[in-house]
Write a structure and sequence with these properties.
about 270 residues; mainly alpha; Arc Repressor Mutant, subunit A; Four Helix Bundle (Hemerythrin (Met), subunit A); elongated
Length: about 270
Amino acid sequence: MGEHAIWETRIWKWPPDQFLSKIIDNLPRDWVRFTYLTGEKRMAEMVRKINRRQLHELVSDEIRKYIEERGLKEGDKLPSMEQLARMLGVGRSSLREALRYLEAIDIVKIVNGKGIYVKDAGSFRYTGKVKIENEKKFLLHILDVRRALEGKAIELAAARITEEMMEKMRACLDTYDELKRNNQDTSAIDYEFHQYIYQAAANPLLQSVYDSISELVKRFFNEPLGDKTLFDNTYEFHRTLFEGIANRDPERALAEFHKMMDVVEQSIRNF
């Protein structure tokens, strides 16, 4: 297993309170180069991620079908990574993302050096309720990571934000306000706002780590649980969060951020 594959497998096993320290200890050296991709290379990377996201969702569905059709039970072993890649006709990168997602929602368990195992056979029944519960579990896992990673970005942004970045964030919020007033979809502008926080933090390694899971974080902004309006009640906290950053008050900014995340968590649990 390559260095990046090991990283991707480990990241979901770290407790939220140890997440940032684990990143520092385990970050692969060559990831730094992602920070310096520019121009055509950066655009090509973005296109590749979009295509891979669409593919890994299809792959995860095929793995579920494989388990269900063969009546596999908890503890049963799946084919190896190499065998699955050949069976499904996909690359290892897309397969790893699909398995990472299935592991996050407790459908499979990946044991380093041993293989891939069915974790919860009951999760494969294709009912709406099971799908919703799995998606809720996955979003809560991602939320834990967001609290740790974006929380650190907010601390740094409050100390390092430039006037230029403040103007970008103000313009972003003005657009957010306008869309909200006109009862239009705000998911894209919401995602853009949170992207600016990482840029304002001005930490290349933190940005690289975020980029590695950004496709998973996008699930918060791309019809979570099939409902685009699920997190609309976080709207009011965006302005107060920005004010904390702009006033270089990390305590206030973090307090507003955690209020926002608390609302998100409650919305997921109550769905």
